[in-house]
Design goal:
Layout lengths: L2 H15 L22 E2 L2 H10 L3 E4 L3 H6 L23 H7 L8 E4 L7 H11 L5 E4 L2 H7 L4 E3 L1 H10 L4 E4 L3 H5 L7 E2 L12 H9 L11 E4 L3 H12 L6 E4 L3 H7 L3
Parallel strand pairs: 1-4, 2-3, 3-4, 5-9, 6-7, 6-8, 8-9
């Protein structure tokens, strides 16, 4: 199921599948609503608030490589539980205990690869069995986060993996034109932060649509945005999601760190 199909499934079925008798006010307030689960779900709107006020630890319940390639900004990841096959992947509760300094009352939010992914549910059950008392899930996961305009963050190891293995990836350098001309990452395209304006179809983003810097024939193309610093990269990445690109990640580090991640 592609991202758009998942999104429409959430809109149409979330109230029918869940325990609540009332439909959510809008898609940002929707949850998957699967019955029979021992942990509560949160909506995209609630997750945004949690990330903004840092009121819970947000755990990405996927393997490290998936996390490194793209994760919700502010989330953390721990190692896999030893001895578990990939088909039953679950994070290591012992590692989570070390991360949280043994505080089992810490508010925790889990997410994984969307409504049909079992990683968050498996980890939630293991956390409850270990005595954790405040565990919730963002079961809509990465696919719906992206579909609703959420950017993701890429780690140095993820950047290296994508550049080595995804021939369709488009790298966007947000530094100013003079810096770009002095040297950039291989095959990167320049959309300077100063030219990215508020609003849709304006400024350098509109020009990039028309001159081929942005892949207008496939909005699902992976876009990785980097620049002088995190603030510039994230600003441009968020602007691109508002132009209906569904697979946008930004690199949190500096340009020098991005170049170092790709050094052979």
């Amino acid at each position: 199921m592609n991202r758009i199909a998942i999104l429409w499934t959430v809109v149409l079925l979330s109230s029918a599948a869940g325990a609540s008798a009332q439909a959510p006010g809008n898609v940002l307030q929707a949850t998957w609503g699967e019955s029979g689960q021992r942990t509560a779900e949160i909506s995209t709107e609630q997750l945004r608030g949690i990330l903004a006020d840092k009121s819970a630890v947000v755990l990405d319940a996927r393997p490290f490589r998936e996390f490194a390639i793209s994760h919700i900004p502010g989330a953390v990841n721990v190692a896999a539980k030893p001895g578990v096959p990939m088909s039953s992947y679950v994070s290591d509760v012992a590692e989570i205990g070390r991360l949280l300094n043994g505080n089992k009352a810490t508010a925790i939010v889990l997410y994984c690869n969307g409504p049909f992914c079992g990683k968050s549910k498996r980890l939630a059950d293991e956390l409850l069995a270990a005595g954790y008392t405040n565990v919730r899930r963002y079961q809509l996961g990465i696919p719906v986060w992206r579909a609703l305009g959420g950017v993701t963050e890429i780690e140095p190891a993820g950047l290296r993996h994508v550049v080595d293995n995804d021939e369709t990836v488009v790298l966007i350098d947000t530094r100013e034109a003079d810096d770009f001309r002095s040297g950039t990452l291989a095959d990167a395209r320049n959309i300077p932060r100063s030219g990215v304006l508020e609003g849709k179809d304006v400024g350098d983003v509109k020009r990039a649509k028309d001159d081929g810097r942005l892949p207008m024939d496939d909005h699902n193309t992976r876009l990785i945005v980097f620049g002088r610093d995190e603030a510039n990269a994230r600003y441009v990445a968020e602007a691109l999601t508002r132009e209906a690109f569904h697979n946008v990640a930004y690199f949190r580090g500096s340009f020098a760190e991005a170049r170092s991640a790709l050094a052979r």
